[in-house]
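Honest question from a wet-lab person: if I give you the sequences of every part of a complex, can you actually get the arrangement of the whole thing, not just the pieces? Trying it with mine:
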Amino acid sequence: MTIGGFKNHPYIPNSVEEVQKEMLKELGLDSLEDLHAEIPEELKLKSKLNLPEPFKSEYELRRNLEQTLEKNKTCKDYINFLGAGCWQHYVPAICDEINGRSEFLTAYAGEAYNDHGRFQALFEYESLVAELIDMDVVNVPTYDWAQAAATSIRMAARITNRKEALVVGTIDREKLLIIKNYCDPAVNIRLINYDKETGKMDLEDLKAKLSENTAAVYFENPSFLGFIEDQGQEISDMAHNAGAISIVGVDPSSLGVLAPPSHYGADIICGDLQPLGIHMNYGGGQSGFISTRDEEKFVMEFPSRLFGVAPTVKEGEYGFGDIAYDRTSFGNLREKGKEFVGTHTSLWAITAGVYLSLMGPKGMYELGQNIMQKSQYAIQELGKIKGVKGSRFNSINFKEFVVDFNDTGKTVEEINKELLKRGIFGGKDLSKDFPELGQCGLYCVTEIHLKEDIDKLVNSLREIIEG
Amino acid sequence: MHYLRLSQETLGADINVEIGQGTCTMKYNPKVNEYIARKPEMTELHPLQDESTVQGILEIMYKTDLCLREISGMDQFTFQPGGGSQAILTMASIVRKYHRERGEEEQRDEIITTVYSHPSDAAAPATKGYKVITIMADEEGYPDYEAFKNAVSERTAAFFVANPEDTGIFNSRIKEFTDLVRKAGGLNCYDQANANGLLGITRAKEAGFDMCFFNLHKTFAAPHGCGGPGGGALGVTKELIDYLPKPIVGYKDGKYFLNYDLDKSIGKVRLFNGVPQTVLKAYAWIMSLGAEGLYEVAKVAALNNNYLFKKLLEHKGVDVPYRRDIQRVEQVRYTLEKLTQDTGITSGDIQRRVMDFGMHYWTSHHPYYVPEPITLEPTETPSKADLDEYINTLHHIFDEAYENPEIIKKAPHRSTIHQVDESSFDDPEKWAPTWRVYLRKTKED
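Yes, you can. This is the full assembly:
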């Protein structure tokens, strides 16, 4: 097959024919067709690919794609109350400035010398998250919270040599699907019941399900449904008494005001970095961290890379490198390494480091306080609407809460459609994932919501429900 | 200021002749693609928004799917995997579910891969509970066909392979391999991390594969971001569509939608819909080139690579494992074994020295089946002048190895830092994975 080619393309400097001729001559070849000689004729395509005609200029590309994207309605155009694993927080300009730096954006897998800055930035992220959660070891993050939770469970199963994990009953059903797939067939996943009034874990059920097969107990704070699980220490104690490991998933944006899980018995902590300065990106901003104490039995079970600090040959100077590299599938072990490692979400780790450096402990406290106040205000005001319970559970919430519409005579789907007409994204409809709750929506309020935004939601809902 | 300085101490692909990171396809990441992807119409979308409000991004995902179907011959893509390794894990999950549905899960407990396929082709199936059989290379560098034939049996669940492998050698008998697996009842899974030299030349379907994946952050010019977020676009034949993770993007009656109607789905591998901003960048790249442009990419990637291959071998210290007289596709794994024997300088030493010239190279995955390896992949991005600069630099350093080895042993000389004392990294008593641990351990000392 001979194709005329696509000459002088800016992305292909050597598409210039004169240069190609010179290089081909060097190789003793006559034309580009003489390349790919090792590919058998029967496997070669006989005609060109049937793809759309490309745009003729950068201008046309940009115009077309921008017009396509403008069909979207964004959380800038609408007031957004969706959370459920991806949250709209304020992204400080410095976060985009740093992760947009060409040096970071286009780096990949260089060594400790040419990529010193990358190693240090990732080490700093590890160290900052370690401070936030008061733990010792933090990984170069994996894909998302769900993967982090799944790997935490697999780590626990290897440490305990057991094959069952007990998982909090209020977990996000999407996250549960990921965990189940990732743990199949190595670890069996069982859900623990929750108290229908408080949402908290049913400790009797936990007790009944703990056994000598239990590798880990996994719960979250704040829970997927927004309430704070205040039985953390009891749950961890019960897990430990059964010889199991306590794993806690946490939203890092809560840790300026809430105690970190390491203070109530967590052995492994995981969560998502997306709240820390990363845009939602239609779900493309997720990034999962895993953390443990600095004990060999834990550290050696991480599949992820761990960047450590060490002195150089010059006194007073620091360098960085991989800790216990051989435990990974990149080490000498391939399939005998711990799970696998590849391209995950390092740019988001660097971004989270920038965010935490900017915020500091005081900034994280103010963030948490701001979110607590606004979400409590929203719960209170929503509760004043006829037939609406601002919070389905009688527990304290952080950032998210379950709004109960059961007594309104309307479904969440109907309500959300009406809200959409008024420029509002209502909370996630829980009726499919948690049918026992009936018509409830999971609402999210963060620091980006002004009082007028919450008031607009309340007024709109009143209009929709009360007529 | 601090982070700007750290960025300056990072050798991004944009600021060097990035030929050295073989297997990773470090091509130019078009600025216009990044510009578009950073607009609020992309960044400020919540993944659970009503479908009517995300028609733009769904349209782009759907159209990218159509392009990748044509490029690979597969019938449906998912963009859920966040990178190549997660795509391999997804393939292994589909393999398990497929055999479970057919009542052969217990019987088919082995997967076969090759020694020069990515470590994740062994590690991710092992994570899914499979016993891994690794086929070594024969004398010519191809996966050993006889050994492969002996390995395939009624216990074979699937074959996971890259082609070309990381040596840059294309296994021209690949169809015989996939036919054997198919006849034995297994599935063929194609790691297309090394697809850049094959665009518009040859496809997964014709080679007999049931599934394949592309790294959007490699072949399709989305940036690598220091190691993600990337994108592992996974395609399957129509027989396997129902097994894909939910949801996939559909189109009906003039509207794009998320299709959850997949009977045998493995469930999910990544929250929400993968990494959509990466899909957008890949689409922008495909639409900047079209069919003829992709073909030119493959041809020029192969031209650049074989030019580099010929020129580098002109130095006495460098060689390749296996035959010199066959073309490599888009990359080459070289060996400095002779240079090391002659001078005592290793590939790792030279790697540190290359940094002094503002460049970089990667050795190989571990373990080093090729002694003293270097793996180079020029892609279509560098000009001839860039290639010549890179070749001249390596030749200069190889000469130094023979004439002035001390300068290499003490390298780097122009890095931010001097040689790191790596002795603590494997010592639980001394390693310091965070600053607080470092302070605690050094204080105790």
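Two things worth pointing out. The radius of gyration of chain A is 26 Å. The longest strand of chain A covers residues 214-221.
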